[in-house]
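The protein record now logged underneath.
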Amino acid sequence: MSMFGDRERGEENKFAHDAERLFRARARRDRKLGAWIGQKFLNLDEAATGAYGQSLLALNLEAKGDVNLIAAILERVNAEAEQLTEGQLIGQLDHFMIEALAEIEADDSKQK
């Protein structure tokens, strides 16, 4: 029974670690996305770009999932610039998520 309990605790710890890692990656991704959009489409200065990235993170925390995030970004950008397609945005989301996961992996490796 003890071996089963140890295995169960190990699985729970792995699940918690993976969930925390995903949360951190999404936060990094959203900040990177905010910087990209702020600079490329909205012509925001550095401070406003950072604030925009934080607002994307907050939006993503309010409503889980990327659907609401994508809709909000497209609405704002296309109201001002009309240059961003949903396909481009999803491509950048994927790109920044890959970058964020790689950075977190590197950070975690340094800490070990």
In short: The chain is about 85% helix and 0% strand. The first helix runs from residue 2 to 40. The CA atoms of residues 32 and 81 lie 19 Å apart.
